Amino acid sequence: MNTPQTDNFLHNTDIAKDTLVLILAGGRGSRLHEMTDERAKPAVYFGGNWRIIDFTLSNCLNSNLLRIGVITQYEAHSLLRHLQHAWSFLPRERGQFVDMLPARQSVNEEMWYRGTADAVWQNMNIMKNHYKPKYVLILAGDHIYKMDYMNMVRSHIQSGARCTVGCIEVKKEDAKEFGIMSVNDKWQVQAFVEKPQDPPTMREKPDTSMASMGIYVFDSNYLYDVLEDEIQKQTKNLDFGKHIMPRSMKEGVLYAHSFARSCTGHNTEGTPYWRDVGTLDSYWNAHMDLVTEYPQLNLFDKDWAIHGLPTQSMPTKFFCKDNCLHGLDNSLISGGCLITNATITESVLFDRITVADHSHIHQSVILPEVSIGKNCQLQNCIIERKCVIPDNFVVGVDKEHDKARGFRLSSSGKVTLVTPTMLTKLAKQNEIGKPSI
């Protein structure tokens, strides 16, 4: 094990120079269903002005960790385009970059990435020969949160760990979806089990488990050695949670880092805010977190700003001609929208959306370039990009009717997803006028 280092040797500039960030952004996100048919999960729109991956990248920028590689695979075109347009401003002459690392077929390789650790292994030659880091910070590109990664890397170096895993407290009933661990007084991991049916809990909190966030810091040489060894063993679908974490724990070199120590975004109760938005319900719920009277995540924090690619568009115009005194309440409205005599409550509207007379939108997420006709009622729904909603259209009120018309219901049955393809199919059945998509 490395000897723990003192603060005298931990200048931020040195840590930044020695650290390579790898963002795993190749996942399909199948639980978002049609929303990820043509885009990777990290490229899904979020918050009215961003993509999901912008939160991870903004954390890197605010943490001053600016040597970044983004590993992509599934339906990567929109993600790569976004990275190129929104994140190409870092000065490479200063050793700062956001490099794109798409899956590729090399000599004697017949398969794409076969697991999170396999994706890193397939880029190991580039890491060794080009980036040459001392530490490797591995992140997921599909979660919503604010975190100072520099604190975690510093903690890793100070502890003398070879591998450090970021962890967060979750309710026991939710812990089945995570890697769950227990630690000693020095935060050395004593047990690690991936997605257990009966999750172990914390001694002082019997209804709470300590879960992996899918965030790891490695000493680079240790990472190279364990990946090469596992590949030599022909470990199938090599994964950090299933294979590398249990191995590092058994070797006594795995430590945990509590998210609470590095979180820079708390909810109204003071609890660290972190959301996996991988289902329709969680995606919708995370948006509703933004439109409460006191939002659970502050998107207006200039001290830890979320960056992305704001659309350069005309101002949004609201026009109420029938003494509509309460036309807008607790909502986020992006630029270039034209809203006429409509009621919008507890909703998030992205850019370039039109809403016509007497339509009502409640607790809904409307993605860019959507046109909503007159006298429509949209409630508890997600409307995909470029949908054209005809006059007198009602969705989200009668879920059984939504399902019968071919719209997607979330697993809870609370949220309805509408896409242009669904509307076109419905139009062919002569139930509504054909939308001009």
Automatic annotation (TrEMBL):
It is an enzyme of class 2 (transferase). Alpha-D-glucose 1-phosphate binds at Y113, G179, E194, K195, S212. Its EC number is 2.7.7.27. Residues 315-416 form the Glucose-1-phosphate adenylyltransferase/Bifunctional protein GlmU-like C-terminal hexapeptide domain. It comes from the Bacteria. The record marks Q73, W112 as: Could play a key role in the communication between the regulatory and the substrate sites. Pathway: Glycan biosynthesis; glycogen biosynthesis. GO terms for molecular function: ATP binding; glucose-1-phosphate adenylyltransferase activity. InterPro entries: ADP-Glc_PPase, ADP_Glu_pyroP_CS, GlgC_bac, GlmU/GlgC-like_hexapep, NTP_transferase_dom, Nucleotide-diphossugar_trans, Trimer_LpxA-like_sf. Involved in the biosynthesis of ADP-glucose, a building block required for the elongation reactions to produce glycogen. Catalyzes the reaction between ATP and alpha-D-glucose 1-phosphate (G1P) to produce pyrophosphate and ADP-Glc. NCBIfam families: glgC, PRK00725.1. This is Glucose-1-phosphate adenylyltransferase. The gene is glgC.
